[in-house]
Amino acid sequence: MPHRLNRAGSIPFTMNLKEHFSKIENFYGEYMLQNDCAVVFSAALDGGFLFGKDAEVYPFGRPESFDACVFAIRHRKNIFFPAVNAEFVKIIKKRFPGLSCRESNFYIATPERFAGKEKVPARPLRISDAKTIARYWGNGEIKYIESRLKLYPAYGIFDGERLVAWVGIHTMTERIAIMGFLHVMPEYRGRGYAESISTKLAHEIFKTGRIAGIHIWSDNTASMQLARKLGFEFVCPHYWFWYERKK
Question: Are 201 and 179 in contact (CB under 8 A)?
Fold first, then answer.
């Protein structure tokens, strides 16, 4: 049911995202096809934002549209803007002072350009491996990691039964799978493990008819060099904003 908020020029309402994907310019809009999220759309300005799970907010459409209806999300206790396109950065910084921000570079790889080699055999990860991954990735978000291992393929290299290198998938749509979690234990680096597990996972993605994508923090020179070596092509920068409101 459409509802009017107390601000002129913006009439947000929920709708089926699939029917309006053509209006979404932000790449991450397609991700939400998988997540049954509520979509807030500013009909007057051809754009807006959509709510993901928990604190995630995804801007899309024209920046001025996002600016016009951003007041509607200011009440949220936790706010997280993942992989934001550059055109929204100034608005977010202006409307949400105090947010932390980190820049990443977004890369994609196609089967035709991919050049990686599986030099060391990799094997599928187990759900129980999430405990190890959580010690080195994010903020110990073991439930999130477990959910990814249940949904998508992930691979690692083991020294006996010890997991020493791994990579998985954050999310997958009909056309792309976003790889992540890539890590090699320090004492095992320089052996081609990162290339091997990335190659194994990328080939599995390509078999499904999808392309592979990856976000790399802009200060992670080594990972960007590896991505280019494997045949990943730079697409654009993405920016990540976050903070937790005090209770």
Answer: yes
